[in-house]
Amino acid sequence: MAHDHEKAFRYRIPWRTKSMHLGDHRGTERGLGFEYRGNLPFVEYPDARRMDFRQSVRDPFEQVQVKLFNQDNTTPVYAVCDLSSSMQYGTHPRKLDSAIAIAESVAYSAWQAGDVFSLVSYHDQVDEAYSQPLSHHLASSLDLLAELRQFRRMQMGARGALEVSQYLSQQRGLVFWISDFHMPLHLIEETLNSLSRHQLVPVVLWDEAEFSKLPKFGIGNMLDPETGAMRTVFFRDYVRKQFMAAFAQRKTALEQLFLQFDSQPLFLSESFTPDVMTRYFDQYVSL
Residues in domain DUF58 (predicted)? Predict the structure, then answer.
């Protein structure tokens, strides 16, 4: 697994996890972690590894004492990947290829942190052929993501986003929702409501050819920023400016909607590097 550190980023979990598995995050379960909680009599918590001889000698009731710690626990980490038709936009790479690269980085990062990873992919519904339940097995996650690079189906919508929450555990997790979000705002809002128990990182993938590198004159294909539908347009200067203004308005609308759910979106229009995600967590996610 050479060079996996180059694909990983550092993320933060701003809550205590309740998992019983060892990981890098503060937990609520008693365990051999690093945060000291206090002492209990050995009869209440019979674990010889934790015996506190100093406190046992001092105990007026002559009970053997054990130390308690908060366990460092694993957290469920999810990459939720949009397979709708608008994600096929772009060449070298398509937006979908960029989404897969980000999902791979999420998988590496979770594996490096000792957390469990799951991939959930959707279009008109959740596509179970390209989804995987929570697992510590990095290789199988990367194999599935490699298969996803062959995905080429068109005429696919995004309503499957509403089903994603059914594929997540009841335990609070860290969810990277990777999409261009070219879908009606009410669909995004309904999905955000369904995911509200989790910490959400919306990763917004836009190709510069969609909104800034537009033709100045002549026939061109254009994506509708609200529906993801492709339109053939005869470009003139004012039409070009209309499209640029529509994307600027769309960006503002998305930011406002995500912030209502305490989720700071990460807009990406250039090639992804893990450092971008590390900076995001340093800036927006405090412990």
Answer: 47-251
The neighbour count for residue 130, using CB atoms within 10 Å, is: 19
Q: DSSP letters along 45-72, please? A: S--GGGB-HHHHHH-TT---EEEEEEEE
Domain boundaries of the chain, sorted by first residue? 22-73, 76-284
Residue 166 has pLDDT above 60, yes or no: yes
d(CA 208, CA 185): 21
Task: Give the residue from 137, 134, 201 showing the smallest Cα distance to 169.
Answer: 134
Q: Which sign does the torsion angle of CA 275, 280, 285, 286 carry?
A: positive
> What pLDDT, in 10s, does the model give residues 178-234?
999 999 999 999 999 999 999 999 999 988 777 666 667 677 776 666 666 677 777
pLDDT at position 47 is 64
CATH topology assigned to domain 76-284: Rossmann fold (3.40.50)
Looking at per-residue pLDDT, the higher value among 246 and 62 belongs to: 246
Tell the residue number behind the tokens 């996890």, with chain if given. Answer: 17
Tell me, what's the pLDDT at 28? 43
Residues 145, 100 contacting (CB under 8 angstroms): yes
Cα 195 to Cα 208: distance, rounded to the nearest angstrom: 29
- Which position has the token pair 């986003």? 161
The whole-number pLDDT of residue 71 equals 43
Cβ neighbours of residue 95 closer than 8 Å, sequence gap 6 or more: 86, 87, 88, 89, 180, 205, 206, 207
Mean pLDDT to the nearest integer, 74-99: 90
User: Contact at 8 Å (CB) between 75 and 13?
Assistant: yes
Angle made by CA atoms 238, 227, 236, in degrees to the nearest 5: 15
